[in-house]
Amino acid sequence: MPSAAAWMWELPSDGSGPISTSRDPDQQIMIRAQSHASRLLWFGFAALIAAYFLTFWLAPKQPETWPALWFVPGVGVIGAIIANASGTGGGVVFIPVFNALRDLSDWQLDPLRVTAISMGIQAFGMSVGALRWTDRLLHQPAVQAHSNEAPVRYQDYAVTCMLVLAISLPVQLLAQAMIEIDGTTVLIAYKGFSVILGTALIIATWTVNRDAPERAALTRFDWAVLAMLSVPGGFVTALFSVGIGELVAFYLFLRHFPMLLAVGTACVISSISMIAGTLLNQQAGIIAWDIVLLAAPGAMIGAVLARPIALWLGPRKLKTAGGLWIAVSALYLIGIAQN
Question: Is the pTM above the cut of 0.90?
Answer without folding.
Answer: no
